[in-house]
Structures are given as structure tokens and as C-alpha cells.
Design goal:
Layout lengths: L1 H18 L25 H10 L1 H4 L14 H15 L10 H17 L5 H6 L7 H20 L1
Bound molecules: heme C (HEC).
């Protein structure tokens, strides 16, 4: 039995090492000057702090990759989440969204946050302090309402 356990361990180790040679293609970051607060229209410091802490890793071009982000197979999942996340909503590209798109994205944000679907649960487990409590959800909701009104009124 001991021998089988030992051989299994050796095989698992070899597989994990080999996996490291498969590229994960983590989406690239763009230079940090784009992280300007004016990017997210009229978001005050409180809103920006929440978005940066809880959303920017997947919804901006400034993902804070940690050491394990580079370790396969975790890296493959992270690459997929960041790629899909940026496609769905990218605060670094907020400036280039049309009014219609902004209104739609704002409504999506409020809905996802209220339902507790975002940030992703697995992410909150690994990153303490990113989960949104009721107070933070309310900050986001009222920013969404104000912003939507402003855009519609323009
Ligand atoms: C760990 C990565 C991750 C984090 C953190 C995260 N998201 Fe997401 N988010 C995703 C992914 C991936 C999708 C795309 C889901 C899909 O396509 O099935 C998504 C989708 C969305 C969508 C849907 C957009 C659409 O067009 O349908 C909204 C809105 C959203 N996220 C808002 C947020 C907000 C707000 C936060 C922060 C409070 C946040 N997310 C944090 C990964 C993340």
C-alpha cells in the first residue's frame, strides 16, 4: 500500500510539473495611468473603492495577479474568468461605452450586486474583504440610480 501511495504521489507531481508548460494566456494588463477615477463616470471615492477592491480584478485592465495566478491548472481558470469578465464589463473601457450600453451595464451591475451573484463567490472566499455587505450594496445601488438618471437626462 505504501508503495502505491508513493507512486501516486510521484505521478501527481510529474503531472503538475508538466502542466506548468501549458500556457495559461492570462489577459494582459494595460499601464496603470488608465486607472484614473474619471474612467468610471461620476463615481465618488466610496464607489470607486468598492469597485476597485471587489470588481477590478475581473472587470478592468488592471488585474492584480497573485503568485498562484501563474500556477496551472488554477491559472487556466483565472485566465478564463478574467477574459470573460472583461468582455462582459470593463471599467477601463467605461469611457468608450455608448449611453445605451452604460445604462444597460449599470442596471446589470445593480442586479448582480443585489442578488449577491457578483463578485463571484469563489473569489470572495479566497480574497477576504471583497464580499459586499448590505451597506456596500446600497452604495452601489444608489450610485447606479443617480448615474442612470443623469445619463437619461442628458
Ligand atoms: C473573479 C472574477 C470576477 C469578479 C471579482 C467580479 N466579476 Fe463580474 N463577472 C465575472 C465573469 C466571469 C462574468 C461573465 C459571466 C458569464 O459570462 O457567464 C461576470 C459578469 C458580470 C456582469 C454581467 C455583465 C453582462 O453583460 O451580463 C456584471 C454586471 C458584473 N459581472 C458585475 C460585477 C461587479 C459589480 C463586481 C464587483 C462588485 C464583479 N462583477 C466582480 C467575473 C467577476
Amino acid at each position: 500500500m505504501k508503495k502505491i501511495a508513493y507512486i501516486s504521489l510521484v505521478i501527481i507531481t510529474i503531472v503538475l510539473i508538466v502542466l506548468q508548460f501549458v500556457p495559461s494566456e492570462l489577459p494582459q494588463n494595460t499601464p496603470a495611468q488608465l486607472q484614473d477615477k474619471s474612467q468610471v463616470q461620476n463615481a465618488n471615492d466610496e464607489v470607486m473603492a468598492i469597485l476597485k477592491t471587489s470588481c477590478y480584478d475581473c472587470h478592468s485592465n488592471q488585474t492584480n495577479y497573485r503568485w498562484y495566478s501563474y500556477v496551472a491548472p488554477v491559472s487556466w481558470q483565472i485566465a478564463k474568468d478574467v477574459k470573460k469578465g472583461r468582455e462582459a464589463l470593463n471599467f477601463s473601457e467605461w469611457d468608450s461605452y455608448s449611453k445605451r450600453k452604460l445604462v444597460r451595464k449599470l442596471a446589470d451591475i445593480k442586479e448582480q450586486v443585489n442578488k449577491g451573484d457578483m463578485p463571484m463567490k469563489i473569489y470572495c472566499l479566497i480574497h477576504p474583504g471583497t464580499r459586499l455587505d448590505e451597506a456596500k450594496k446600497m452604495v452601489i445601488a444608489s450610485w447606479v440610480d443617480q448615474e442612470t438618471k443623469k445619463i437619461m437626462g442628458q
